[in-house]
């Protein structure tokens, strides 16, 4: 749920730069003139920069960078082939890996296949013997497998980006619809009432000198109308504060279904005090948002229990988890839970588990028989 696992997976491609040890070891095995040494290290440094750019630009949707990286890897192989002996073949493996980082399967296939065939050219030309055949075949297979793996990873990355964009769009549309609803409700509630108050106040002002009793009656009527309007506004505000945990579960299911994540609700939902239910609903919303954006989970389990000491809400997912510092969303929710006397625990081992404990509020007993409500 934290940003730490996401940063790890974004930086994970840099791990494969360790295979540059092969051309480096092949190069340092024998002495080279200064010109060749400068050329080799310049090519190596340029390739590292290109490799990083391909993965960074690829995440931004610029797929043509995979072809640039493929061409750069082939050129690096051609330049360093005679300088690092067989170690230069690592650049061909990189060529397959880089060309796979795009959505077009046929480009990834043919690009990696060409890199694998180039790897076998020294064998056909007699520069390598039959003793070299096993490692050449292994490298060719590894090139194709790497291209496929990167292609599949890129498609997954694109799908996750689209899901996140869809989630943001849904949140934006929901916020706009909510603002429109609030504006419409306030207009319906207060528009006519305030107009009546203005008219009666003007009438009371005109009657103040010549008919004080009638003016006082109009003022009392203004007071009565104002109190009714205040009551209606307070009722509307309570409605805006939250529509309950059941409704939030329904919204969570829609969001998780869109992201390809299953929602499991463990048992019936007990009847909760209004303060507890509002806080639990907001905590569920924050947890589901984090799952959709960061967790890469397949399933989310939600369970609400009522006990002698209060209520427990547990939200568990099977995603990447992590023990990184909490974001502002969960930190804010922890403060909300603490504000009504509860506690919030987070465990990032084997996924992420949020466990919120709420006390019995306002002297309300825990219901003996919870209502059987399912999302």
From TrEMBL:
Keywords: Coiled coil, Kinase, Membrane, Transferase, Transmembrane, Transmembrane helix, Two-component regulatory system. Residues 279-362 form the Histidine kinase/HSP90-like ATPase domain. The chain crosses the membrane at residues 36-55, 67-84, 104-124, 136-155. GO terms for cellular component: membrane. Residues 156-183 form a coiled coil. GO terms for molecular function: phosphorelay sensor kinase activity; protein dimerization activity. CDD domains: HATPase_UhpB-NarQ-NarX-like. This is Putative signal transduction histidine kinase.
């Amino acid at each position: 749920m934290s940003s730490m696992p996401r940063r790890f997976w974004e930086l994970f491609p840099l791990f494969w730069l360790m295979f540059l040890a092969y051309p480096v070891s092949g190069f340092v095995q024998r002495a080279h003139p200064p010109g060749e040494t400068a050329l080799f290290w310049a090519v190596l440094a340029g390739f590292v920069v290109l490799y990083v750019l391909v993965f960074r630009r690829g995440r931004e949707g610029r797929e043509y960078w995979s072809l640039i990286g493929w061409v750069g890897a082939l050129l690096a192989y051609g330049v360093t082939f005679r300088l690092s002996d067989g170690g230069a073949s690592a650049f061909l493996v990189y060529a397959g890996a880089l060309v796979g980082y795009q959505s077009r399967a046929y480009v990834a296939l043919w690009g990696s296949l060409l890199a694998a065939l180039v790897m076998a050219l020294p064998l056909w030309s007699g520069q390598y013997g039959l003793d070299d055949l096993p490692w050449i075949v292994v490298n060719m297979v590894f090139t194709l497998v790497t291209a496929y793996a990167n292609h599949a990873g890129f498609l997954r990355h694109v799908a996750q980006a689209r899901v996140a964009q869809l989630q943001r769009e849904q949140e934006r549309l929901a916020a706009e619809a909510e603002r429109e609803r609030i504006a419409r409700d306030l207009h319906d509630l207060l528009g006519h009432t305030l107009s009546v108050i203005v008219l009666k106040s003007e009438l009371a002002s005109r009657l103040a000198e010549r008919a004080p009793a009638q003016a006082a009656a109009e003022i009392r009527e203004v007071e009565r109308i104002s109190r009714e309007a205040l009551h209606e506004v307070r009722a509307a505000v309570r409605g805006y504060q939250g529509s309950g945990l059941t409704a939030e579960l329904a919204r969570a299911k829609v969001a998780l279904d869109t992201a390809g994540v299953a929602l499991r609700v463990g048992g019936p939902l007990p009847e909760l005090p209004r303060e507890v239910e509002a806080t639990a609903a907001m905590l569920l919303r924050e947890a589901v948002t984090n799952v959709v954006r960061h967790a890469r989970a397949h399933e989310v389990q939600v369970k609400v229990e009522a006990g002698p000491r209060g209520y427990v809400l547990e939200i568990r997912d099977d995603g990447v988890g992590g023990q990184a510092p909490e974001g502002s969303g969960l930190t804010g929710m922890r403060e909300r839970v603490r504000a009504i006397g509860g506690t919030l625990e987070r465990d990032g081992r084997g996924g992420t588990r949020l466990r919120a404990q709420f006390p019995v509020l306002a002297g309300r007993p825990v219901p003996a028989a919870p209502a059987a409500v399912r999302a």
